Amino acid sequence: MIDPISGFSKLEKEEKITWLSKTYLKGVENAPEILRQYWNPNSNLQQLHEEFTENTLSNYYLPFGIAPNFLINDFRYAIPMAIEESSVIAAASKAAKFWGKRGGFKAEVLGTKKVGQVHFMFSGDKDKLKEFFRQVKPVLLEAAEPLTRNMKKRGGGILNIELRDKTESLNDYHQLHCTFETKDSMGANFINSCLERFAETFKEQAHQYETFTASEKDIEIVMSILSNYVPECIVRAEVSCPVEQLADHDMTGEAFAGKFVRALKIAETEPFRAVTHNKGIMNGIDAVVLATGNDFRAVEAGVHAYACKDGSYSSLTHAEVRNGEFKFWMEIPLALGTVGGLTGLHPLSKIALEMLQNPTAEDLMKIVAVAGLAQNFAAVKSLITTGIQQGHMKMHLMNILNQLNATPEEKEKMVEHFKKHNVSHSAVEEALKNLRS
Ligand SMILES: CC(C)(COP(=O)([O-])OP(=O)([O-])OC[C@H]1O[C@@H](n2cnc3c(N)ncnc32)[C@H](O)[C@@H]1OP(=O)([O-])[O-])[C@@H](O)C(=O)NCCC(=O)NCCSC(=O)C[C@@](C)(O)CC(=O)[O-]
Ligand SMILES: NC(=O)C1=CN([C@@H]2O[C@H](COP(=O)(O)OP(=O)(O)OC[C@H]3O[C@@H](n4cnc5c(N)ncnc54)[C@H](O)[C@@H]3O)[C@@H](O)[C@H]2O)C=CC1
After folding, report:
1. Is 299 in the same domain as 348?
2. In which pathway does it act (predicted)?
């Protein structure tokens, strides 16, 4: 049985690697070298990366690519994407090219309202609590003034604080449900600081509120935290074109549009399909969120909660044909920042935002939503025509060749060979074996 280690966080990086190698990597004799090979030769840059988080031993590389030719609201973008999965960037690029010839993408921010909650327990008289809240609300806002001054100058700040009775779902459970505008920041730290200030003030004021009995004065604050569910921080992305412009190889535009709409209806009604359908959207969204130094876990949690907003998990995108016009769209909640977090710290996030012309948070919401819509279009287009494997495996070929330790010359010959043959792991193994024999 391996003994626990105390004080690990205080060890030097090399000491941490030595401990890990001796304790968990005994069979991997070059483990330290593998970890060290990913260190940045620029010691200052390596130090910066190590200070992003804790117990850092090395860096974890992800491919950083771009998808060019995105026409969004008549502006041309090359969109940065950080993702390990093959064919995602190719798919986004292909969709950008396709829609760039058909009027491009339209995107509009419908709201930027962020949410945070103070969760507390109160077992006393609810009418007295309501009256207490009515009187204390201005005191809470006043107490947060030092925290909100600068955000207000930018046009942001606290939008509202509501008292919500949640005792139906949990005995004695109430909330201060708070909404915020955080402009170009995702706003987590701003919101959480305000919430903690509300909580301490609310508790102090309750202690002094004469109408409360002794037990009513002792309100239990359970926690104060922003919500990653932001249904009113929402952006719409859309494409449309005459149906005949959708003709694809041996499919008429009308036939393609009809099958595409049916695929979307299936994703709207069948949760097993909807999850994969939405994963395809998030291939595009997460790649841009990550590349720009934003928090993809927060985005994912909020998006999938939103996909359940009507009572069951469903597709985030929708399509229709009306009067000969094909329309394909998505409305999606995205809390993103173009300042704060790593956005201005990580050199690649900085350059990602620079290539997007230093967007505001609202601009970034539009770009990210379009990347998700484009990804979904490319995926569904493949699914309803050639099937996903033909394109995906074409992009995956290099991974298989690398798994089989193909030389550059062998890779060149294999790429040529598989222009005329379907890619599968066994087919590549066979072709490589024949080439080597
Ligand atoms: C993969 C493609 C794009 C091939 O498509 P293709 O028609 O074989 O590509 P092409 O060689 O004719 O090139 C057309 C364009 O595609 C792009 N493209 C083409 N090749 C490359 C490349 N090597 N590098 C960069 N870009 C590439 C590029 O924009 C290129 O234009 P060009 O640059 O030549 O002017 C197509 O089959 C496709 O879009 N497939 C969909 C793949 C996909 O969705 N991948 C996501 C991973 S699968 C998944 O997880 C999602 C899913 C499917 O489960 C979601 C769901 O279920 O809904
Ligand atoms: N549940 C969650 O989602 C949580 C996420 N986080 C992390 O917090 C990170 C982001 O935190 P933030 O508070 O957004 O960043 P931050 O606290 O690093 O920076 C935001 C600050 O930037 C300043 N600022 C300068 N110019 C601004 C402008 N134009 N608009 C708005 N603010 C401006 C303001 O002081 C603002 O408070 C996320 O990436 C996430 O990883 C942290 C806690 C919880």
Report:
1. yes
2. Metabolic intermediate metabolism; (R)-mevalonate degradation; (S)-3-hydroxy-3-methylglutaryl-CoA from (R)-mevalonate: step 1/1
